[in-house]
Design brief:
Layout: H1 2-17, H2 22-33, H3 38-42, H4 51-91, H5 109-123, E1 127-128, E2 134-135, H6 137-140, H7 151-155, E3 166-167, H8 175-182, E4 186-195, E5 207-217, H9 222-237, E6 243-248, E7 253-262, E8 279-288, H10 290-295, E9 304-310, H11 312-320, H12 333-338
Parallel strand pairs: 1-4
Antiparallel strand pairs: 2-3, 4-5, 5-9, 6-7, 7-8, 8-9
Helix pairs in contact: 1-4, 2-4, 5-11
Bound molecules: zinc ion.
Length: 342
């Protein structure tokens, strides 16, 4: 009987190696363990075994049976794993018969131009600061020298929150936080989304974008401001840019200027972009008001600086030859296509 058991085990070992499918496995289980299988069939033979060998042979029968059961179980687990792997690789297979979608999307022209401008400033040693969109009344107005009842507040009506905070009306709302962060010399730009509660038309939006910059150090003068603006704009337009300054008024700078550039599209001859004037008003700028420096924790006797805004929506409109600022918030796909998106 011992030999017979060893023979059954040996043939089982050979059979189990050949298993490929669940059907193969089931066939072997039936062949060895079902009522008419080899193992149950051999049981009656135990009765014929001499008494002194019964215990040993009995244990052997059990051990062979357990071994067969274990191996069947292991093989089933192996088949399960193969099945899972097969499902995963099937679901990840690329169906090359699917039609190709060429509409892969792109960045908004505003984002593209913002990144270009940021790269130029980073190359000039500036840091790019992130500003909040919900601001305190102090940061948006008081800190930049626009006290309560100042007429500039009327021009910058915005959306107020129940807690007294507001949606910032200009990127200058970040000035105070940045001045306090550096507490000394700094070169920073801070692009951001701004909001105004006003009547909309082709040149006014309730949501628009600005890029503002500040340079603070000892002995910074108007000469530095003019030189810097000319250099920076030449990099933005990738050509030599002529600038002119006109006196302007902003509460947060003194003196304040409106900086115009000679129209880079017609070289000053007059075109639709410059409304035939030859010059484009692009950058409000000026020397930072001593009150703003003081509010930012700096001594105006020791430090000076200049600030400038870049008409960033204006730049996007110029590059895309757009005549309505509202298009920029419209999600209009025709507009995106105009900027080279297929
Ligand atoms: Zn022009």
């Amino acid at each position: 009987m011992k030999e017979k058991l060893q023979h059954i085990l040996k043939s089982f070992e050979e059979d189990i190696k050949k298993v490929v499918t669940y059907d193969d496995l089931e066939k072997i289980r039936v062949e060895y363990l079902s009522k008419k299988g080899y193992i149950p069939q051999i049981m009656p033979m135990l009765r014929e075994v001499p008494n002194e060998q019964k215990k040993e042979i009995g244990q052997l029968v059990n051990s062979v049976k357990n071994q067969i059961e274990d191996e069947l179980k292991n093989t089933k687990q192996m088949l399960d794993m193969k099945e899972i792997e097969k499902n995963i690789s099937n679901s990840e297979k690329i169906d090359i018969t699917l039609p190709v979608d060429n509409n892969i999307g792109s960045l908004h022209p505003r984002t593209t131009i913002q990144k270009e401008i940021e790269d130029i400033f980073i190359g000039m040693g500036f840091s790019v600061e992130d500003g909040k969109e919900v601001e305190t009344e102090y940061n948006n107005f008081d800190a930049v020298n626009v006290p309560k009842n100042h007429p500039a507040r009327d021009m910058q009506d915005t959306f107020w929150l129940d807690n007294g905070e507001l949606l910032k009306t200009h990127t200058s709302a970040s000035q105070n936080r940045i001045l306090r962060k550096y507490n000394g010399p700094l070169k920073a730009i801070f692009p951001g989304r701004c909001f105004r509660n006003e009547a909309l038309d082709h040149s006014h939006e309730n949501t628009f974008f600005q890029i503002e910059g500040m340079v603070v150090d000892k002995d910074v003068s108007v000469a530095n401001l003019i030189f810097f603006m000319k250099e920076m704009l030449s990099l933005v337009f990738k050509k030599d840019i002529e600038v002119r300054l006109r006196p302007g008024f902003f509460p947060f700078t003194e003196p304040s200027f409106e900086l115009d550039i000679k129209c880079p599209f017609c070289n000053g001859k007059g075109c639709s972009t410059c409304k035939n004037g030859g010059w484009i008003e692009l950058c409000p700028c000026g020397m930072i008001h001593p009150n703003v420096l003081r509010n930012g924790g700096l001594d105006p006797e020791q430090y000076s600086g200049f600030a400038f805004g870049l008409g960033y929506d204006r730049l996007v409109m110029m590059k895309g030859n757009l005549n309505d600022i509202r298009l920029l918030n419209s999600g209009n796909l025709k507009l995106l296509k105009q900027f080279g998106i297929k």
